[in-house]
Every structure is written in C-alpha cells, then in structure tokens.
Amino acid sequence: MKKFVIILLLFLANFISFSQNWADTWNGMLYRPSGGGGMRVAVIENLTKRDTVGSVFLYEKFTSGKIFLTTNEIIENYPLNYDLEGQAMEIKTESEIKVLEVNRILIFVCKNPATLQNDTFINGTIFRQPSGMYRVLTSGNVNLLESVRIKIIRANYNVAMDVGNKNDEKVKEEKLFVLANGKFAELEKNKHIFPHFGDKKTQVEEFTDKNKLKVRKLNDLIKIINFYNQLK
To answer: Domain extents for the chain?
Structure first.
C-alpha cells in the first residue's frame, strides 16, 4: 500500500498543472457507475478463437494482487489476470470468473509469476490518455512506462510448399513511453531519451558513457533515467 501511495503521488506531482483538483479531473474523464459503486461483472466464455493460437493474458497464470478502483475502493484476496486483448481484469472467484472493465481501474499491482516481483500498472487516463494500463518501469521527474498489447500475426501457410503457419497467432507487443514535463510520448526504437533531461543532459550523457550503458537495453535505460531522477 505504501508503494502504491508513493507512485501515485509522484505521478500527480507531475500533472498538477492539468487541474487544481485532480479528483475533479478524474470525474470528468472516467466512467462513474450509478448507485455508489461496487463491481459491475459479467460472465465470459471462450476468450480465444479456435483458429488462433497464443495467450491474450498478461501472465501465464492467475496471480495475487490488488486493484485500486476509481471509486476509491480496493479489490484484493482474489487471483487476478489481465486480459490484454479485451482490456479488462479477470477476477477468479470460487464459482466463476468475473470481469472488471479497464475504465473502472485506476492502478493495479500484481506479483509477476515469472520474476516474483510486483508489477505496477497505472491507467493512462491519469495523464490524459485513452483508458488503458501502462506498466511503471521507473518513476520520478522522468517516468518510463510500458504498454503491453496483443498483436495478431496472420497465418501465412503455403499449401504447395507446406511451409508457414496455418493459424493466426497472438503475441505480446511492448512499447515504451516517456512521461516528463507534463508531456507523454512514445519512445521510438532509437530511444532519444537525452533531450528529456534538459540542463542535466550533459551530466547524464557522461554517466552513460562512463558506465558503458546502452539506451537500447531496457535495464540500462532504466538505470540512466534513475540516475537523472536522483539529480538535484
């Protein structure tokens, strides 16, 4: 909970200029259920087509976590998994799987089954983007975010040569974004990150060269941004 509060405060500090009252801003941007809140749920069936292979989920299996709703409520103590294609959280109860739409979610924190570390995702509506979840890779004056979406690779089977894939395939596609100085932009493949560092640009470049860091490597990129965020 403490980590959630710190991350949320860091984001809000960068965007206070959008509104003197960020709660009013959220009210204008986010869906508000009638009747005072509570989960609106729906039973789902057959999330993938028979002629398509690949998972549409963030994780390979359900995992533990917390969901912070736009109604200032928390959902916890249920196995969770995020549907990247449907943009909704699946919540496993004892009797069935229920679905929570993305526009009801403010932040969710889940334990990554692969790394055993917590992943924090924040809704793009907080920084005036369409509703959708972004993984927080690092936060501060410059924030590095990652979107994970589903991309379909179409079947390309050649009957005559008996080569290629017979089925469409769903794969995860990651894109990086920078959130800095009230602006949100995709970080292109060439990763021109240094202009975001303003008058500290030279200092960060020297740090990068000295430590032989490569902006094309995600872990190195995070180290570079973390160094900048620690500068005064």
So the answer is: 2-183, 188-232
